[in-house]
Amino acid sequence: MNKLLSIYGAAVIAASMAIPAAAQEIGTYSGTSADGQSVSFGVGTDPNNGDPQLINATIFFSAPCKSSTYVLDTGWGIGLSSDIVRGKVRFVSSDNYFTFTVDLTFSADGQTATGTIESVAPTLYKVGAHPTKALICTSPSQTLSVTLQPADAVTSKPNQQSIRPNVVKDDVTADEAND
User: Fold this and answer.
1) Which of 115, 38, 113 has the alpha carbon at shortest distance from 77?
2) Which region among 5-9, 48-52, 99-103 has the lowest average model confidence (pLDDT)?
3) 176 lies in some domain
4) Is 9 domain-assigned?
5) Can you give the chain as a three-state secondary structure string?
6) Buried b / exposed e along 132-147 (16+ C-beta atoms within 10 A)
7) Do the strands 112-125 and 99-106 form a parallel or antiparallel pair, or are they unpaired?
8) Has residue 8 been placed in a domain?
9) Domain of 65?
10) Whole-number pLDDT of residue 108
């Protein structure tokens, strides 16, 4: 009898280890942060290990600036390669223009995710031809919620700061081509 219980116990343990972790769906998860700003994350497959990973993010944020009444409203698109492990992922993405700290936890069915986001960015003030100082602007840590979008509903939002309106190819000099 003890041998039968031992075999049964080993089978239960083996079966529980064989159950895969909740799989995230490949695609785009879109939603908002607590202050109503748009966020989206692309989930793809890590080519090195086959695990799901965040491959990109589009983050819009509104950040009050330190020692000023100015509020920076902006958005950025970034490339990522952050593995999702047991339904969770954390990344910090920094460069000269922003620092994003994001924690996400995906639901068991992989259709939604919730978490937190904090955004920090500098800006020149007063905006115009001759700014007089630089400001540090912070959108404090807040909750966010995203939902997997149907493949046919995914649309890309351009980074509004990178759009040059009414530019005609012949009007751009070599110096301006990379601006």
Assistant:
1) 38
2) 5-9
3) no
4) no
5) CHHHHHHHHHHHHHHHHHCCCCCCCCEEEEEEECCCCEEEEEEEECCCCCCEEEEEEEEEEEEEECCCCCEEEEEEEEEEEEECECCEEEEEEECCCCEEEEEEEECCCCCEEEEEEEEEEEEEECCCCCCCEEEEEEEEEEEEEEEECCHHHCCCCCCHHHCCCCCCHHHCCCCCCCC
6) eeebebbbeeeebebe
7) antiparallel
8) no
9) 21-149
10) 95
Handedness of CA 155, 56, 163, 31 (dihedral sign): positive
Residue 144, domain member (yes or no): yes
Place of tokens 């009444």: 69
- In total, how many domains does the chain have? 1
Closest-CA residue to 67 (of 142, 134, 140, 139): 134
**For 6-20, how does the pLDDT look when each residue is reduced to its tens digit (9 = 90+)?**
544 444 444 444 444
- Pull the structure tokens for residue 179: 């601006």
| pLDDT of the residue at 128 | 87
Nearest of 49, 141, 38 to residue 90 by alpha carbon: 141
Question: Any residues with CB less than 8 A from the CB of 92 and at least 6 apart, and which?
Answer: 99, 100, 101, 102
